[in-house]
C-alpha cells in the first residue's frame, strides 16, 4: 500500500515508536483497573468477615457497599478519562499513517465499543481498508481478521462496505459466514444494493479461493490415470544395448540335489 508523502500523512519509520507508546499505555490501563477494583474486593472481604458480629447487619452492609463502590466508580471514571487523554495524541498520529500495520494494531488493541474506537479506529478503517492489497495480508493477524469479520455484524453500512471491499484481498474462509447474509440481502445493511453487490462479489472470490486450495477449482488440476494403449507393442520395455546375450551366459537357478 502506498503511503502519501504529505504533512497530514507522515512517512518514515514512525510506526514502531508509536506502537511502543500505545502498548505502554495499554499496559498502564490494567494497573489502573486493578487499583480501582482492589477497594471493592477488600470491602467485600471485610464485610464477609465482620458481618456475623454486627448489629443491624443489613444497614451496615449497605453502608459498606456504598462507601466502597462510590469512590471506586469515581476512581474508575477519572482513570478512564485520564487514560484516554494520554492515549489520544498517540492514536491521532497512528491514524494519520497509511500503513497496513496500523490496521492490525488498532483492531487488536482498541476494543469495540470505546471512545478510542469510535473516534479513531472506525474512521481509519473506512479510509484505509479499501486500499489494501493481497500483499498486505502478512501484516494482518488472525485475531485482527476475526475482529474484522465480527464488525460485519454491526449496523454500520459505511464500515461494512469498506470491509467487504478489503476482504477479497485479505479474507479467508472464516469470513464466509459473515459475508453470506449480506450477499443474500438478509440483513438491514444488505438491503443496500451497494453492500449486497459488494458482498456477492466478495463471497464469490472467497469461495473460488477456497475451491482452488481444496482442489475443486480451476487452479487445481487433478491427475488422472492414462488410458491403456490399444497396441501393446508400444508399451515401455527395458532398454537394451542392441546385442543378444547367448542363452548359455544367462543366469539360471541352481537345481537342488
Molecular structure report:
By secondary structure, the protein is an all-alpha fold. Helix 2 (57-95) runs parallel beside helix 4, helix 4 (115-128) crosses helix 6 (157-170) and helix 6 (157-170) packs parallel to helix 8 (193-214). The chain has eight helices and no strands. The N and C termini lie far apart (85 Å). It has helices at 15-50, 57-95, 100-109, 115-128, 142-151, 157-170, 176-183, 193-214.
Topology record:
Elements: H1 15-50, H2 57-95, H3 100-109, H4 115-128, H5 142-151, H6 157-170, H7 176-183, H8 193-214
Helix pairs in contact: 1-2, 1-3, 2-4, 3-4, 3-5, 4-6, 5-6, 6-8, 7-8
Helix-strand makeup class: mainly alpha
Question: Strand content of the residues, in percent?
Answer: under 5%
Largest sheet: none
- Backbone shape: globular
How many distinct domains?
A: 2
Task: Considering the chains and any ligands shown, give keywords for the structure.
single chain, 257 residues, mainly alpha, 8 helices, 0% strand, globular, disordered N terminus
Short description:
Helices cover 60% and strands 0% of the residues. With 257 residues, it is mainly α.
Amino acid at each position: 500500500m502506498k503511503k502519501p508523502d504529505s504533512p497530514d500523512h507522515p512517512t518514515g519509520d514512525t510506526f514502531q515508536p508509536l506502537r511502543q507508546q500505545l502498548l505502554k499505555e495499554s499496559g498502564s490501563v490494567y494497573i489502573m483497573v486493578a487499583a480501582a477494583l482492589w477497594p471493592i474486593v477488600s470491602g467485600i472481604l471485610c464485610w464477609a468477615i465482620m458481618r456475623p458480629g454486627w448489629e443491624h447487619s443489613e444497614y451496615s452492609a449497605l453502608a459498606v457497599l456504598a462507601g466502597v463502590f462510590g469512590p471506586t466508580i469515581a476512581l474508575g471514571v477519572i482513570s478512564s478519562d485520564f487514560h484516554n487523554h494520554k492515549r489520544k495524541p498517540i492514536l491521532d498520529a497512528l491514524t494519520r499513517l497509511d500503513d497496513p500495520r496500523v490496521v492490525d494494531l488498532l483492531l487488536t488493541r482498541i476494543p469495540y465499543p470505546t471512545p478510542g474506537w469510535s473516534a479513531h479506529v472506525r474512521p481509519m478503517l473506512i479510509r484505509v481498508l479499501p486500499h489494501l492489497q493481497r500483499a498486505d495480508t502478512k501484516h494482518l493477524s488472525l485475531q485482527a481478521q476475526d475482529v474484522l469479520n465480527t464488525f460485519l455484524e454491526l449496523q454500520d453500512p459505511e464500515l461494512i462496505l469498506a470491509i467487504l471491499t478489503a476482504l477479497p484481498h485479505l479474507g479467508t474462509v472464516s469470513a464466509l459466514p459473515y459475508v453470506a447474509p449480506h450477499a443474500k440481502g438478509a440483513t438491514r445493511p444488505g438491503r443496500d444494493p451497494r453492500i449486497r453487490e459488494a458482498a456477492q462479489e466478495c463471497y464469490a472470490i472467497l469461495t473460488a479461493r477456497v475451491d482452488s486450495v481444496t482442489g475443486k477449482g480451476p487452479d487445481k488440476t487433478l491427475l488422472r490415470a492414462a488410458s491403456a494403449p490399444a497396441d501393446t507393442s508400444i508399451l515401455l520395455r527395458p532398454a537394451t544395448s542392441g546385442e543378444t546375450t547367448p542363452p548359455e551366459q544367462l543366469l539360471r537357478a541352481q537345481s537342488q540335489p
